[in-house]
Amino acid sequence: MHASICDLLADIVQNSIEADASLIRISFIQTDDKLSVKVLDDGKGMDELQQIRALDPFYTDGHKHAARKVGLGLPFLKQMVDMTDGTCTLRSERGKGTDVSFTIDLSHIDAPPVGDIAMTLTGLFSYPSDSEIIFRRAFSRGGEGDEYEVEKSGLLDVLGELNTVGNLLLVKEYMQSQEAAIEEVHHRVR
Amino acid sequence: MAKMTLQELRKLRDSKKTEIQKRDLSGKETQIIVGMGTCGIAAGAKNVLDTFLTQLEIHNLNSVVVTQTGCMGLCYVEPTIEVIAPGMPSVIYGKVDAEVAKKIVEEHIIHKRMVSEHVFDRPSVDIIKDGGK
Fold first, then answer.
1. Which of A7, A35, A180, B99 is packed most tightly, with the most Cβ within 10 A?
2. How do residues B55-93 score in pLDDT, each as one tens digit?
3. Is B56 among the domain residues?
């Protein structure tokens, strides 16, 4: 099982990258203890039967590892929402794209920790793929809140490339500064 | 703390760039690929990535290319990484935690010595010590 919500997110976004998406929109919105996450891509999509089978841990489309009949990404997500009375929906259309959304109550005793958002996004931005990734993050509690949006293309524009150690550390620092502002609100309104 | 803007990021990059240019650095040809499939993520590949970034910076190897890939088919020894370095065979290392990542930077990348006990693919099994564990 995945240790954090960020690990689940990384897994879902990796699916989008492998589905040849050119645009991946991620929203990561927290209101009080309710977190809702959405990953929307314009990748190759799945037909109805595949969507049902994708939640089966012993199903994979078999292109990558023909002999290994497991595919645990979405089953892990389903397991986590089942454990925590959350919800998850999978909508997809062949040739159009896929929308994976889930909600979770972070105060649920079995809810995993959110994890390291800055590092997770830094990792996702470093994939050698042409996919644009737009990450929108918002947090609000008791009328106070903060939000930010980061586009992979914006970072590429500033840094030139996103795969060298030096630049990835800059991306990480940039993401951490965005998260620090949210963390500040988090502490203030606790 | 105020959120960094893209302009500030650009400035920071420019200042680091001059700093980097001042040092005579190697590492441009070296590439590290971290397996980030479901198996890699579950085994802690994100921490491994973070450790590589930190360690490579400590050794002024800021031009090393670090990218990711999905599952490399060695789920049983995750986290796995591949290292492509000049003068060395490309190697896939398995069971790479923060400690091992540090060792790979110091041994494989800097001193050009393989970390044999973590080699899981390439070169062939006959030269891996202890049967690759």
1. A7
2. 999 999 988 999 988 888 788 899 999 999 988 888 999
3. yes
Chain B residues with beta carbon closer than 8 angstroms to that of A123: 34, 36, 46, 49, 68
Question: Of all residues in chain A, what percent carry a pLDDT higher than 70?
Answer: 96
CB-nearest to A73 from B3, B27, B38 is B38
Taking an 8 Å cut-off on Cβ atoms, the answer to whether B70 and A64 are in contact is yes
- The DSSP-derived string for B52-116 is HHHHHHHTT-TT-EEEEES--S-GGG-S-EEEE-TTS--EEE-S--HHHHHHIIIIIIIS----G
Contact yes or no for B1/A184 (Cβ under 8 A): yes
Give the domain CATH number at B103: 3.40.30.10
The parent domain of residue B67 ranges over 26-132
Distance from CA of A96 to the nearest CA of B (A): 22
Does residue B68 sit at the A interface (CB-CB below 8 Å)? yes
Q: Are B9 and A174 in contact (CB under 8 A)?
A: yes
From the list A65, A123, A165, the residue facing B73 with the nearest CB is: A65
